[in-house]
Every structure is written in C-alpha cells, then in structure tokens.
Amino acid sequence: MPPYTNYHAQRSYPMPDEPFCAELNAEQRALKEKEKGSWTQLSHAEKVALYRLQFHETFAEMNRRSNEWKTVMGCVFFFFGFTALLIWWQRVYVFPKKPITLTDEWKAQQLQRILDMKGNPVQGLASRWDYEKKEWKK
C-alpha cells in the first residue's frame, strides 16, 4: 500500500489538492518520467497506474452502492428486538398486577350501581336505560 497523505476525494469535490500517492518508489518514479513524454507511447496498464497514483477511486467506484444499509438495518432490528424483550420483562416481573377495578366483573357492577342510583337521568346512562324492561333503550 502506498503511504497516505491528506487525500480526500468525493463526488462533490473530485479533484483533491494532493495526489493519492505522495511517496513514489523507483518503478513509479520511472512511470512519472515516462508520463512527461507522449501519451500515445503509454500502454493502457500504464495509464491506469498513473491514474491510481493520482486518484484512489474512479467515479464508477465512488458511485457504487455499499452494503452498509444491511448493517444499519440489522442494528435497528436488533435494538427493536432488545427493546421488545425489555418491555416484556418489565410487564412480567416489574409492573404490578392490574387493579381489580379494571376487571369486567367490576365494570359490570359499577355500571349496575350507576343505573340503580339513577345517576344523570337527563342525558347520561340512566336516560338510555329502560327500568321497566331492564334493558337498554333502542
């Protein structure tokens, strides 16, 4: 691997201030000297090597999709699952039992008590109850 410099290339700023490879070995220096001559004498592999000395990636390599989204979604689903387990554990072991006032029997008794006391007979529950037939008015 060539030594790195303060090289930073991105799609919005494709021409970095410094080349990708700052320190060149003998083979790369010879290629840079050959670059000063006619480019028609350079082979395709030499042109690619010169490009790689200046830039780390091509636009096609910069624009290719990464698989980072899979890691992010995996972490999100892991934390969703962990949160669900934590909520389940709290409901089973931490939270108290439901109060008796939330049972269906208690609610039925409470409704019957309101009807027996004729609570709010003008517009409330007692106004919708038929006391003679013992059923709700239709």
TrEMBL record:
Component of the cytochrome c oxidase, the last enzyme in the mitochondrial electron transport chain which drives oxidative phosphorylation. Belongs to the cytochrome c oxidase IV family. One of its GO terms (cellular component) is respiratory chain complex IV. This is Cytochrome c oxidase subunit 4. It comes from Leptonychotes weddellii (Weddell seal). Its main location: mitochondrion. GO terms for biological process: mitochondrial electron transport, cytochrome c to oxygen. The keyword Membrane applies. It is found in: Mitochondrion inner membrane. Keywords: Membrane, Mitochondrion, Mitochondrion inner membrane, Transmembrane, Transmembrane helix. The chain crosses the membrane at residues 71-89. Pathway: Energy metabolism; oxidative phosphorylation. It comes from the Eukaryota. Component of the cytochrome c oxidase (complex IV, CIV), a multisubunit enzyme composed of 14 subunits. It is a single-pass membrane protein.
